[in-house]
Amino acid sequence: MSDHTGAPSADTPPPGCPAHASAVHLGGLEYQQTPSQLYRTMRREHGAVAPVLLDGGIPAWLVLGYPEVSYVTSHDELFARDSRRWNQWPNIPQDWPLLPFVGHQPSVLFTEGQEHQRRAGVITEALEGVDQFELTRQCQVIAEQLIASFAGSGQAELMSTYAHALPARAVLWMCGVPQGTTGTEQLVEDLRISLDAGEGDDPVAAYLRVGERITELVKEKRERPGPDVTSRMLHHPAGLSDEEVVQDLISVIAAAQQPTANWICNTLRLLLTDERFAVNVSGGRVSVGDALNEVLWLDTPTQNFIGRWAVRDTQLGGRLIREGDCLVLGLAAANTDPQIWPEAHVGAENSAHLSFSNGEHRCPYPAPLLADVMARTAVETLLERLPDLVLAVDAAELTWRPSVWMRGLTTLPVRFTPSVQ
């Protein structure tokens, strides 16, 4: 690989890197509305592994094929998580936008081998201690409170007032954060800003405040443990340090909040815009499960995930992957791979999607089950309380956030008959 040390221009990748003349910029308007069309084009032109350019013209590989994503995530000895392996670090400017996602951190996300098994094992056992029936009840309480705040007006913007707020409050409850306090509400807002900043927000400052509050929480739970995820992590026999618990708790909270929020909102969009579900929406329960699963196939909350780094030179999808190359996992593209859906029909009853990733670094069990509890309860409770819920705009007016990583609406405006909860 190149030993070039100057920062690349926006359009020219450093020499000797995986990108070539036909490399696709991973960004642009296509990702806002119709990423599936872009994936089809890339697959047709490049095959299952495509050369792409990240922000600033930094080269990487986008893994589009279902078998290829499954292979990468199942072979940690070839494609590892420690980003310090990246051969592009000499070309990365200090203000690179993706640095928060790629820069090595002392969290479970970047660990490997036995250390990853130790850290992930603590998270798994801590999450296994969550009573799913109790979580359902708590999500129902949270949903009722949120719905009551707008039910009397006959209209609402569900992305900010409901879909984001519910999983944030639920995961903080699981972690032992006291509910209903001013500090909790600020933490919920800071989580939203740090993961999904809007115009005028300062995500870096919000993330620092999240870290400070979680550090306080860990200190509190070290002194006064309770029946919560934080206490179980702190008192696990693996003996994690407070700093390790803070880092891993932030990872757990972040992984639970934004993807689940987008899962909720994308499912509501499907239920409100697709005539296949119209007959059953008023009842809520008949088709919500199918809708939730179909969204994981077709509008998965995490479109792409960065990433894996090649441990040595290897072959993948007919491409030569050099040691240190970055691979972006194209989860959305893999889920719609024509190799697994030759008739272009995604079966909602099938749950073999890659939306929670795959292999040792997939979402730790039982995180997907807990996310399903939150999403299902949020959707069902809303439809039960507001049975005549409809979009307040034409479906074509709904817009997606301009992100290549997350798949979520900017807003979901709805109207309904005003009611007193």
TrEMBL record:
Residues 1-21 are annotated as: Disordered. The lineage of its organism: Bacteria, Bacillati, Actinomycetota, Actinomycetes, Kitasatosporales. InterPro entries: Cyt_P450_B, Cyt_P450_sf. It comes from Streptomyces cinereospinus. This is Cytochrome P450. Belongs to the cytochrome P450 family.
